[in-house]
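Morning, I've got a small favour to ask if you have a moment. I'm working through a protein record and want to make sense of it properly. The fold is given in discrete form, as structure tokens running alongside the sequence. Can you walk me through what the tokens say about the fold? Thanks so much in advance, here it is:
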Amino acid sequence: MTHETQPNEAAAKVGTDGVADIPIAHNERVLSGLLGQTVFAACVLFTAMHLYALNVSPIETWTFRIIHVAGGLAVGFAITAAMTLDRSPGEVRINRVEWFALIPAVAAIGYAVFCTLYAWYMRETGTPPANWLVVHLSWSLAGATAIALVSSWIWRSSSRSIHWADAILIIASILVAAYLVLVLNRWRMAAGTPFAGQTEFMIAAVGVALIMELTRRVAGLALILITGVFLIYAFAGPYLPGLLEHRGYSFSRFFTYLYTDNGILGPTTAVSSTYIILFITFAAFLQASRVGDYFINFAFAAAGRARGGPAKVAVFASGLMGMINGTSAGNVVATGSLTIPLMKKVGYHPRSAGGIEAAASTGGQIVPPIMGAGAFIMAEITGIPYTEIAIAALIPAGLYFLSIYMMVDLEARRDGMLGMSKDELPVFRKMVKQAYLFLPIVILIGTLFMGYSVIRAGTLAMISAAVVSWFTPHWMGPRALLNALSLGARMAIPLIAVCACAGIIVGVISLTGVGARFASMLLGIADTSHLMALFFAMCISILLGMGMPTTAAYAVAASVVAPGLQQIGIPPLVAHFFVFYYAVLSAITPPVALAGYAAAAIANTDPLKTALTSFKFGLAAFIVPFMFFYSPALLMEGTWMQILRVVVTAGMGIYLLAAAVQGWFLNGAANLVQRVLLLAAALSMIAGGWMTDLVGLGIGGLVFLWQSASLKAKSGVSG
């Protein structure tokens, strides 16, 4: 197998959901037979509906978000259920105990469907639905959902059909939206207020339970456990001491509040229903058109022959694909399946190969203009213009990848590694002739900075990905377009689920006011030391983000930590970038480092040791946010001279830090004392002042002179 065909195999995994539990984006079993065709059609319709509503015929905001969540739940349950089927021939067999669950569940969901249709009919004819009708609807829906949830944990289908419990969950997802949109005309007025009644509570509770169940299936238990802690806190608050105490809320008010734009229908779902699904579909088009393959091939052609070439390719390709992908672990799976084996081939230890890929893939989430959808959530929460956020992210992202590049290069020099041979690499001249395949990215960035809306820019970039494919052997015809739409839905479902689940946490924070309490605590700490307050904020952001995808991690951390940072006098842009960085870096922070674990699976090495190695390679990123505070010029806030000076000195500090970590400085190995001095030099350049920068440069110069003298002495002895 030649290298030129390998990227295509790796790119076939681009855009997976990134949570490793259920790779629903690329499970071909889902797309076989009548069931597969039905799921395929549902995915296509789900994505097409969003693109149509975003670009042609807008839908009222709350209605659109409710439909978005319900559609994501229904399609997500269909896909995950289809993936669990036993494809071996056999008859449907339901044991006696299961019948005791199946019969009442089917009867209850059937009655709920009848009540919903009848209530809708009454509403359409101008008659308010009878009270008994909506009460029966809510109880039957809640009963059917509860039975189906428990049954789905106990039994699995042994046939070629989706298990009956999963079918009920799909119907329940649709009924929740149907009730809120078609039957109840006072949801906005009643939800989250004392006017919310038992019926509203039951419907909202069913919606919350469905969201948490799908999140459990596609993202594992980490986010569910965190959400569970917040839900318990909402009711245990009156019994807690001091900072955590609150007055408590009724079930009706609490659960209906969660299903408003202060919770599930708030900023996280606003972003997942617009920017995330748009750019995930864009990534699907890049894959279907094989333009994503070109990015990786171009990186190999440009850097493959350099020292440690595959590692440097991983840095470039992971940054580019991770920007669009939206999940750190998903990006590891996408590019790491190619780069990790090749890094091992040229001499990198498996742990180093996995760590480099994990650190680079995580860094893709901070690369503008998309930033793994983080830029859009930040704009939604802060009100800061999107273009301002994208511009501010340029220098920090550059410093992060400069750090990883330095780490990679110094390790290659220290261990005497070589690059790949010319025969193993694509021909650079051919790659340059196909530079037009970068057109979708160029159009995306160009239209954004020309003033087009993000939706319009993303749509034009998506169309251009299809158009440029017409000049390649991988022409996108009608079938390929439908495949891309279907893949877009399958890639987006995990992020839709985690964004909705993060909305539950945000709703709890908003209702209980715990975010404001954390803010007052940070304010108290800041009276003693701003540095201590920032360190505490860093720890909380990483802790809240552990085990969660970027979008959910940032949304939660922004609700809890960012307001406190703003209260101690930090500008909103700096505060939110500070929180965002550490939410992203939680993916490579042990003990729960999803990106590191995903890389370890590919590298076939110890997960925890790989996570520690990825932490080492991403170490500079843990320092960069503190630079925001001391040197706002890093976020383009200041004169051009200030920005230039900070960039140059920060770049030097990054190199000194990489040299201290890798034990190699300039042209020779650094001993333990020299490494300590280099670390001190790097840390002294964080503050960004003239004096501290000069101290750092002076220490670096001292180590250089010491090293030069040692090398001369060695050469003299050997001579």
DSSP finds 33 helices and two strands in the chain. Residues 1-23, 26-31 have pLDDT under 50 and may be disordered.
